[in-house]
Request: fold
Amino acid sequence: MQRKGPSTGNRDNARDRITACAVREFMEKGFTGASLRAIASSADVTTGAIYGYFPSKEALFDAIVGPAGDELFNRYVAAQENFYDLPLESQTFDGMQAYERGLVHEMLDFVYDHRDEFLLIFAKSTGTAWENYIERFIDVEEESTHRYTRVMREQGIAISDLSQTTSRILSSMFFRGYFEPLLVDMPREEAHEFIADYERFFHAGYLVLMDPDFRPLTQ
Reply:
Protein backbone atom coordinates (compact mmCIF):
# COMPACT_ATOMS: atom_id res chain seq x y z
CA MET A 1 0.00 0.00 0.00
CA GLN A 2 1.37 3.45 -0.92
CA ARG A 3 1.95 5.68 2.07
CA LYS A 4 0.10 8.97 1.92
CA GLY A 5 1.98 12.19 2.48
CA PRO A 6 0.87 14.87 4.92
CA SER A 7 -2.39 16.51 4.02
CA THR A 8 -2.50 20.14 2.91
CA GLY A 9 -4.24 21.00 6.17
CA ASN A 10 -1.50 19.41 8.25
CA ARG A 11 1.19 21.13 6.20
CA ASP A 12 -0.48 24.51 6.61
CA ASN A 13 -0.85 23.88 10.33
CA ALA A 14 2.84 23.03 10.66
CA ARG A 15 3.84 26.11 8.72
CA ASP A 16 1.64 28.29 10.92
CA ARG A 17 3.17 26.77 14.06
CA ILE A 18 6.66 27.39 12.73
CA THR A 19 6.00 31.05 11.93
CA ALA A 20 4.22 31.66 15.24
CA CYS A 21 7.10 30.13 17.20
CA ALA A 22 9.60 32.00 15.04
CA VAL A 23 7.95 35.32 15.88
CA ARG A 24 8.40 34.59 19.59
CA GLU A 25 12.01 33.45 19.11
CA PHE A 26 12.97 36.45 16.96
CA MET A 27 11.18 38.83 19.32
CA GLU A 28 13.04 37.44 22.33
CA LYS A 29 16.52 36.97 20.83
CA GLY A 30 16.64 39.02 17.64
CA PHE A 31 17.48 37.54 14.27
CA THR A 32 21.13 36.86 15.06
CA GLY A 33 20.47 35.14 18.38
CA ALA A 34 17.45 33.15 17.23
CA SER A 35 17.87 29.41 16.77
CA LEU A 36 16.10 27.29 14.18
CA ARG A 37 16.54 24.34 16.52
CA ALA A 38 14.67 26.20 19.26
CA ILE A 39 11.94 27.21 16.82
CA ALA A 40 11.60 23.61 15.63
CA SER A 41 11.35 22.35 19.20
CA SER A 42 8.65 24.90 20.08
CA ALA A 43 6.72 24.12 16.90
CA ASP A 44 7.04 20.35 17.48
CA VAL A 45 8.72 19.78 14.11
CA THR A 46 12.24 18.85 13.02
CA THR A 47 14.76 21.42 11.86
CA GLY A 48 14.65 19.69 8.51
CA ALA A 49 10.92 20.34 8.35
CA ILE A 50 11.60 24.07 8.68
CA TYR A 51 13.96 23.90 5.72
CA GLY A 52 11.13 22.26 3.80
CA TYR A 53 9.23 25.52 4.07
CA PHE A 54 12.02 28.10 4.34
CA PRO A 55 15.50 27.65 2.80
CA SER A 56 17.23 29.68 5.52
CA LYS A 57 16.67 31.50 8.79
CA GLU A 58 16.62 34.80 6.90
CA ALA A 59 14.01 33.44 4.50
CA LEU A 60 11.86 32.58 7.53
CA PHE A 61 12.31 36.09 8.93
CA ASP A 62 11.53 37.58 5.53
CA ALA A 63 8.36 35.50 5.20
CA ILE A 64 7.14 36.91 8.51
CA VAL A 65 7.92 40.60 8.02
CA GLY A 66 8.03 40.93 4.23
CA PRO A 67 4.32 41.22 3.37
CA ALA A 68 3.64 44.03 5.85
CA GLY A 69 7.01 45.73 5.36
CA ASP A 70 6.72 45.81 1.58
CA GLU A 71 3.06 46.87 1.71
CA LEU A 72 3.80 49.89 3.91
CA PHE A 73 6.64 51.03 1.70
CA ASN A 74 4.64 50.55 -1.49
CA ARG A 75 1.78 52.55 -0.01
CA TYR A 76 4.19 55.36 0.84
CA VAL A 77 5.69 55.42 -2.67
CA ALA A 78 2.22 55.40 -4.23
CA ALA A 79 1.13 58.26 -1.97
CA GLN A 80 4.10 60.35 -3.10
CA GLU A 81 3.17 59.82 -6.74
CA ASN A 82 -0.49 60.49 -6.06
CA PHE A 83 0.37 63.88 -4.56
CA TYR A 84 2.07 64.97 -7.78
CA ASP A 85 -0.98 63.82 -9.73
CA LEU A 86 -3.12 66.36 -7.87
CA PRO A 87 -4.06 69.63 -9.59
CA LEU A 88 -1.25 72.14 -9.29
CA GLU A 89 -3.39 74.41 -7.12
CA SER A 90 -3.51 71.58 -4.56
CA GLN A 91 0.27 71.25 -4.44
CA THR A 92 0.81 74.33 -2.29
CA PHE A 93 2.45 74.14 1.12
CA ASP A 94 -0.98 74.11 2.74
CA GLY A 95 -2.18 71.47 0.29
CA MET A 96 0.86 69.35 1.04
CA GLN A 97 0.23 69.57 4.77
CA ALA A 98 -3.40 68.52 4.38
CA TYR A 99 -2.32 65.59 2.23
CA GLU A 100 0.46 64.53 4.60
CA ARG A 101 -1.85 64.82 7.60
CA GLY A 102 -4.03 62.04 6.27
CA LEU A 103 -1.11 59.94 5.04
CA VAL A 104 0.82 59.83 8.32
CA HIS A 105 -2.23 58.63 10.23
CA GLU A 106 -3.12 55.98 7.64
CA MET A 107 0.43 54.66 7.75
CA LEU A 108 0.44 54.68 11.54
CA ASP A 109 -2.71 52.58 11.68
CA PHE A 110 -1.17 50.07 9.28
CA VAL A 111 1.93 49.85 11.47
CA TYR A 112 -0.14 49.26 14.60
CA ASP A 113 -2.29 46.71 12.76
CA HIS A 114 0.94 44.77 12.08
CA ARG A 115 2.69 45.51 15.35
CA ASP A 116 4.78 42.35 15.65
CA GLU A 117 6.10 42.55 12.10
CA PHE A 118 7.26 46.14 12.48
CA LEU A 119 8.75 45.57 15.93
CA LEU A 120 10.80 42.78 14.37
CA ILE A 121 11.87 45.04 11.50
CA PHE A 122 12.85 48.02 13.61
CA ALA A 123 14.23 46.31 16.71
CA LYS A 124 15.20 42.73 15.86
CA SER A 125 16.38 42.65 12.24
CA THR A 126 20.15 43.17 12.65
CA GLY A 127 21.88 40.69 10.37
CA THR A 128 19.19 40.81 7.69
CA ALA A 129 18.45 43.11 4.76
CA TRP A 130 15.59 44.53 6.84
CA GLU A 131 17.95 46.35 9.19
CA ASN A 132 18.21 49.03 6.48
CA TYR A 133 14.46 49.15 5.87
CA ILE A 134 14.04 52.72 7.05
CA GLU A 135 16.58 53.87 4.47
CA ARG A 136 14.02 53.07 1.75
CA PHE A 137 11.69 55.73 3.13
CA ILE A 138 14.50 58.23 3.61
CA ASP A 139 15.59 57.80 -0.03
CA VAL A 140 12.07 58.46 -1.30
CA GLU A 141 11.48 61.40 1.03
CA GLU A 142 14.79 63.02 0.11
CA GLU A 143 14.03 62.74 -3.61
CA SER A 144 10.50 64.02 -3.06
CA THR A 145 11.82 67.12 -1.27
CA HIS A 146 14.00 68.03 -4.25
CA ARG A 147 11.22 67.12 -6.68
CA TYR A 148 8.84 69.47 -4.89
CA THR A 149 11.37 72.28 -5.22
CA ARG A 150 11.63 71.69 -8.98
CA VAL A 151 7.85 71.56 -9.43
CA MET A 152 7.30 74.79 -7.53
CA ARG A 153 9.96 76.61 -9.51
CA GLU A 154 8.44 75.41 -12.76
CA GLN A 155 5.26 77.16 -11.60
CA GLY A 156 7.17 80.38 -10.96
CA ILE A 157 7.13 80.04 -7.17
CA ALA A 158 10.32 81.11 -5.41
CA ILE A 159 11.59 78.42 -3.09
CA SER A 160 14.93 77.80 -1.46
CA ASP A 161 17.01 74.68 -2.01
CA LEU A 162 17.92 72.38 0.83
CA SER A 163 21.37 70.90 0.55
CA GLN A 164 21.53 67.17 -0.06
CA THR A 165 23.05 66.68 3.38
CA THR A 166 20.38 68.76 5.12
CA SER A 167 17.58 67.04 3.24
CA ARG A 168 18.98 63.60 4.09
CA ILE A 169 19.39 64.35 7.78
CA LEU A 170 15.91 65.86 8.12
CA SER A 171 14.32 62.92 6.30
CA SER A 172 16.19 60.53 8.56
CA MET A 173 15.13 62.41 11.68
CA PHE A 174 11.49 62.39 10.57
CA PHE A 175 11.19 58.67 9.93
CA ARG A 176 13.22 57.55 12.91
CA GLY A 177 10.97 59.64 15.14
CA TYR A 178 7.84 58.60 13.27
CA PHE A 179 8.23 54.95 14.21
CA GLU A 180 9.34 55.68 17.77
CA PRO A 181 5.83 55.42 19.34
CA LEU A 182 5.69 51.77 18.34
CA LEU A 183 9.12 51.07 19.81
CA VAL A 184 8.26 52.64 23.17
CA ASP A 185 4.92 50.78 23.29
CA MET A 186 2.84 53.94 23.08
CA PRO A 187 -0.91 53.20 22.86
CA ARG A 188 -2.35 53.73 19.38
CA GLU A 189 -4.57 56.69 20.32
CA GLU A 190 -1.69 58.46 22.04
CA ALA A 191 0.55 57.70 19.07
CA HIS A 192 -1.93 59.44 16.76
CA GLU A 193 -1.86 62.50 18.98
CA PHE A 194 1.94 62.50 18.92
CA ILE A 195 2.09 62.06 15.14
CA ALA A 196 -0.31 64.96 14.61
CA ASP A 197 2.02 67.25 16.57
CA TYR A 198 5.11 65.72 14.98
CA GLU A 199 3.85 66.33 11.45
CA ARG A 200 3.00 69.97 12.26
CA PHE A 201 6.42 70.48 13.81
CA PHE A 202 8.28 69.24 10.74
CA HIS A 203 6.00 71.01 8.28
CA ALA A 204 6.57 74.33 10.06
CA GLY A 205 10.32 73.78 9.99
CA TYR A 206 10.34 73.02 6.26
CA LEU A 207 8.29 76.17 5.63
CA VAL A 208 11.00 78.25 7.27
CA LEU A 209 13.90 76.52 5.53
CA MET A 210 12.29 76.73 2.07
CA ASP A 211 11.30 80.38 2.43
CA PRO A 212 13.56 82.33 0.03
CA ASP A 213 13.53 85.28 2.45
CA PHE A 214 14.78 83.18 5.35
CA ARG A 215 18.22 84.15 6.58
CA PRO A 216 19.86 81.79 9.08
CA LEU A 217 21.41 83.22 12.19
CA THR A 218 25.19 83.38 12.01
CA GLN A 219 27.69 83.79 14.75
